[in-house]
Amino acid sequence: MKRVHSKCLSQDYYCHAYTAAWLWDWFRWTSVLAITLIIVFKSGGMWKKTNSYTEQPAVEFQSNCYVIFTQDNGDIFDYYFWSPFSELNEVQRDRLITPIVSVNENDVDGDGSVDNIVLEIRFSHPNSTFEVRSLSWMLFYKMSLNKRAIIQADGVLFHELRRPFALASYSLQSDLIFDQRKPLPSYGNYRFKQDIFSKFSDNPDQNETDVEFNYGSVSYQPFEIQRQSILANYSIKMGRKVDFWEAKGSEIPEELKLTFEFNVLPSNLVYETDAAELLKWLWIQVLAVFLVINYVFHRLTGIFIENGTFGTIPRSEKMIKLD
User: Fold this and answer.
1) In the structure, what pLDDT confidence band is assigned to residue 314 with cuts at 50, 70 and 90?
2) Confidence of residue 303 (pLDDT cuts 50, 70, 90)
3) Mind listing the pLDDT tens digit for each residue in 55-94?
4) For residue 1, is it within any domain?
5) How high does pLDDT run on average in the chain?
6) Domain count along the chain
7) Within this chain, do residues 38 and 91 fall inside the same structural domain, yes or no?
8) Comparison of pLDDT for 193 and 243, the residue scoring more
9) Residue 251, pLDDT score
10) Membrane-crossing residues (predicted)?
């Protein structure tokens, strides 16, 4: 046989005020709301303070570099160097070697942003007897983010290495990723000043933490520059990397060559949520928890009433439903 139509019987239950069923109904709705708020409160959904998104930072390397060559023989005065500080270069000009720096920027994936950077730094060899067995380098860059808050900051990449054999050339290939000590602002335009050429800023509201800085000669020391760099709240760091130290042969090379290739990768960035986003996540979580808790209490109420736990007055209404 074929069913041509069906009807649904709706059963409603009523009660007088201040009866057990009436009190249960008030208890039920109060409990649903209270349990919902407690769960949301304990889980932290009422204040989702941070969120994340993905962005590839824009990185621009400057021609400024700080390089120190030593023979690593225990003589602290046996070195040659180049720095971006004219005062330091003038004082120690007898130990100064001038580089030729070239920067090549490439857009490998064709998305309109630079994601591959090659730097080549060449130095004339100091003299025939000087053999480089220790190398310390620092490269200065500018970094910016533009997807949410507009962030601009300066920074430095650095590394130091020693080898038992003399250097002819050095090359490094590495990924660059965004590094942060605290969440980014949600929106706004920020310029974080960390320009060592006009002295570090100690303003805790800017990129650096509130650390005292010596503006004397120590400010030119590599250690102090590196220390200030790692204290920056927002910076770029090297991820996976590989480097190669090419040993000098029997002939004296005419120049010392340093080559750096960096791949700028998209990074997962954490930012502070604003009031609108905070309310959005709160509303979603409250609604989801409320529906689950209300369903449980609704089923429990049905069990109590249909089993005669409360004194109620049933009323039936016929509703026609067409297939």
Assistant:
1) low
2) confident
3) 999 999 978 899 999 988 878 778 999 998 888 888 888 9
4) no
5) 80
6) 2
7) no
8) 243
9) 75
10) 278-297
Q: Quick one: pLDDT at residue 259?
A: 96
Q: Do 42 and 98 fall into the same domain?
A: no
Cα(123)–Cα(160) distance, rounded to whole angstroms? Answer: 18
Output the six-digit token pair for 24: 């249960």
Nearby residues of 73 by Cβ (< 8 Å), 6 or more positions away: 133
Residues 14 and 107 in one domain: no
Residues 228 and 84 occupy one common structural domain:
yes
- Please check whether residues 160 and 142 belong to one and the same domain: yes
Looking at the structure, tell me whether residues 279 and 202 fall in a common domain. no
pLDDT of residue 141: 92
Same domain, 200 and 65: yes
- Is 190 within the bounds of a domain? yes
The closest of 187, 147, 105 to 268, measured between CA atoms, is 147
- Summarised one tens digit per residue, pLDDT across range 101-115 is 999 999 888 888 899
Query: What pLDDT sits at residue 2?
Result: 37
* Bridge partners for 24 per DSSP: none
Is 118 in the same domain as 103?
Answer: yes
Contacts of 113 by beta carbon, 8 Å cutoff, 6+ apart: 56, 58, 107, 264
Give the residue numbers spanning the domain of 38.
Answer: 6-48+275-321
The pair of three-digit structure tokens given for residue 179, joined into one six-digit string:
């590094």
